[in-house]
Amino acid sequence: MQLVAKFALFRSTARRVWALTVPYFRSEERWKARGLLLAIVLLNLGAVYMLVQINEWNRVFYDALQNRNQPVFWEQLVRFTYLAFAYIIIAVYRFYLTQLLELRWRAWMTAHYLERWLSAKAFYRMELARFSGAGAAPDNPDQRIQEDLNLFTTYTVSLTMGLLNAVVTLASFIGILWGLSGGFSFSAGGSTYEIPGFMVWAAVAYCLVGSVITHYIGRPQIPLNFQQQRYEADFRHHMVRVREYSEAIALDKGEKVERQHLDGRFLNVLSNYLRLIKAQKNLIWFTNFFGQAAIVFPFIVAAPRYFSGAIQLGELMQISSAFGRVQDSLAWFVDNYSTLAAWRATTDRLTSFEESLQAQALTQGPAVVTGEALAAQDLDLGLPNGTLLMSKLSLRVDAGDTVLIKGPSGSGKSTLFRAFGGIWPFAKGRVEMPDDVMCIPQNPYFPDGRLRDAVAYPEPADRYTDEALKQALGDAMLPQLANRLDDEDAWSQKLSGGERQRLAIARVLLKNPRWLLADEATSALDPKAEESLYRTLLERIRKANGAIVSIAHRPALEAFHQRRWEIEAGGTDGAAFRLKEARG
User: N or C end of the chain, less CB within 10 A?
Assistant: First the structure.
């Protein structure tokens, strides 16, 4: 039963590896990819052929030395120059084309996974699932795309070509070794027995025992490599967060706490790495002993035939060379176990990432359709943990409406906002959205770089003139930034909370949408600035014959909205809250 379970695990792993590998070789770049792969395979075959020639050269050269045949000696030195030069050319181009294949494969896979991660809001849904505990979600997707894809392509190509080289070398040299090794005779029970090709069987037995021992010594490295990549990514991610929230941390005097958090994450890195080093040390003890013993093993086995005069020095050296090639081929598993362990850990991380992407693609949120109004029909709003916030909502916002959403914290105001924005997956029902909708979230995002790119985001800045950009900044009460359009900075950190909100409003004023969803869009502004900016927004929305839906707590904003949606405790059908409408 245990053997069956192991075989099933092997088949499952093989299917997952195949699923990761084959798309590139069936993609739009398939002919280039297959051509490079074929060239690398041919170069590997050529390298093995040259090794066979060098093995034959060993016999002739050392026989010439033993027989003190000077003409043959010099002739073979010239021949070796040709062989070595040809082998060097093959080795150089094999390396170059292998690296080129790895580079192109990584580029394609990175583009492929970035597209899938950023499409259909998968990146957002993964973070929701991860931090809410609503389901399995991969940690650090950025690390999986940036680092794991690189490791996967590098390890897969190198291990595959190494295995191919080992198989071809074995096939090429095993016949040579069989013919050179002769038979091994022994007596038992009054009868004499002979084992033909004894050196071949000795090499097989030697490497088989070594492979089994290597597996049992080295298998702890697989989970340790998996955890090491995770801990490294967690440590790096937290340092990025410290950099992003440097001002808030500095104001809170949180340096000691952040140092403790970073020390804890780095301790995980060091502790796991120490366990990995110890596991590698145990394996290196054996592999080095295995490798050193393999140097003298063929001489020990073939020595009786040499000293009896059955073979000459050249044949002994050829036997040693052939045995070494056969042993190296059979010992491929032993020599590459650490790399295999790291490759297996990387593959596991990528397959879990792939499964999560597939799961997100199947996630069903509300049906979102394009319409002439902002509306919801039979909308059920839930949380990632399964809690039902509100049920059977039927809402509609027509052109000319101004709606204010009010309610206690945690009642689902922002969740309703996200459902109207078409991004909330934990909802059922139907949402109708016009084409021309803009959202201002509580924490607006601004890319690092030029200010003009931050204002125009997510559209290219060259769609707008400098005059239009400056006008939007002025209307949003940011005239001090109007002459800094080409300044590059980390604007999310550089600007104050109020300035960030005004910059988000500048985006709206630049693009003039008909429909606007604003979630606490002016909460960091003083009352005078808030009133002025809301008047400006409403003028633009009315001029465009659109509508605005706002979430806000300040009573002063009620004057700018004709309708109110108030969320209260005590919903129906098991929901925690209900929504009622008021006018005024």
Answer: N
- Of 299-308, 337-346, 367-376, 503-512, the poorest mean pLDDT is in 299-308
Length in residues, the chain: 584
Does residue 209 carry a pLDDT above 60?
yes
What distance in Å separates the CA atoms of residue 68 and residue 82, rounded to the nearest whole number?
Answer: 23
Closest-CA residue to 478 (of 449, 505, 515): 505
Token digits of residue 417: 């906002």
At what angle are helices 255-307 and 313-330 packed, to 10 degrees? 150
**Rounded to the nearest 5°, which phi and psi values hold at 443?**
-120, 85
- CB 142 within 8 Å of CB 178: no
Please state, as a whole number, how many other Cβ atoms lie within 10 Å of the Cβ of residue 572.
Answer: 9
Which token pair is 328?
């190296």
Write out pLDDT tens, residues 346-400.
888 888 888 888 777 666 778 888 888 888 888 888 887 778 888 888 889 999 8
Structural domains of the chain in order of their starting residue, each with its CATH number: 2-228+277-362 (1.20.1560.10), 367-583 (3.40.50.300)
CA pair distance 251, 144, nearest whole angstrom: 33
Contact 537, 477 (CB under 8 A): no
